[in-house]
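Exercise: predict the fold of this chain.
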Amino acid sequence: MMTREEALRRLEAVANELVALRAALAEEWTETLVEDPTQAFLAKCGGWEDTRSPEETIADIYAVRTVSQRTGALFPEEIV
């Protein structure tokens, strides 16, 4: 069993560690406020560059489209 003095000593050690962590965080924490979320996204992910024309992009989208079979599970033929 832990004595009262041991418990107080451990609590003091934890309190000292929290103070040290708080100080370290305060010293190293840097925040820059971003006014435009789009610019923040592009800064992290880079810009999008595509050499295709809009017509080619649309043609590619239509070429890979598929028909979904999910509605069959939602609306069985017996109900229709």
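Check your answer against the key: The first helix runs from residue 4 to 28.
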